[in-house]
Amino acid sequence: MTNKELAIASVNTVRGQFHLLVNGLKEEHLSKPSKFTKRTIRGVLAHIIIATDRAYPMLLEKAKKSKPMPLFFGTALGHYFSYRYSEYAGSRIRFGEMIGTYEKAHEKLVQLIVKIEDDEWQLTTKLPKPSNRSLTILELFTYQVPHHFKVHRDEITKTIS
Question: Looking at the record's lineage, which domain of life comes first (predicted)?
Fold first, then answer.
């Protein structure tokens, strides 16, 4: 497989897992506070959608310029705003629209992947603290996207069980 095919396969796998996760939930689960973060289940789902729609494209853009992500995202204030914004955005998405909203973000992400040139896959960006992890563009899609989803899928499943 080419790097492009690997990246698309990876985000498509996450897409399928997002569908399974949402389809396994009931509307009454959405207001339940997470056992692990300061979000509700609705906020966690919104966070996944926001990451797909905004964070991953930003990571790609930064990698293409060989720049790190803004440090603000790794601060306590950055996390606070992330929690608050995901709750706000989640409150604007009806349960029945979660998959459709994710689908729009996913399709935009796939279109960005399609445009990546062969010589760009090894360009890197750096995540903010506390992780400080360097990621190539390929790792962004084959490691970070699935790992981030898994963390929050596990958060949701452990919260509702």
Answer: Bacteria
> 50: closest CA among 98, 1, 2, 95?
98
The one-letter amino acid code at 131 reads: S
At 107, which CATH number?
Answer: 1.20.120.450
SS3 of 94, please?
coil
**Is pLDDT above 80 for 130?**
no
Alpha helices, DSSP H only, in the chain?
A: 3-23, 41-50, 56-64, 76-91, 98-114, 137-139, 145-160
CA 16 to CA 102: how far, in whole Å?
11
Query: Domain limits at 104?
Result: 3-160
Determine the Cα–Cα distance for residues 46 and 86; give it in Å rounded to an integer: 5
Please tell me the total count of domains within the chain: 1
**pLDDT (tens digit per residue) in 91-127:** 999 999 999 999 999 999 999 999 999 999 999 999 9
Cα separation, 135 vs 144, whole angstroms: 8
Confidence of residue 74 (pLDDT cuts 50, 70, 90): confident
Neighbours of 75 (CB within 10 A): 13
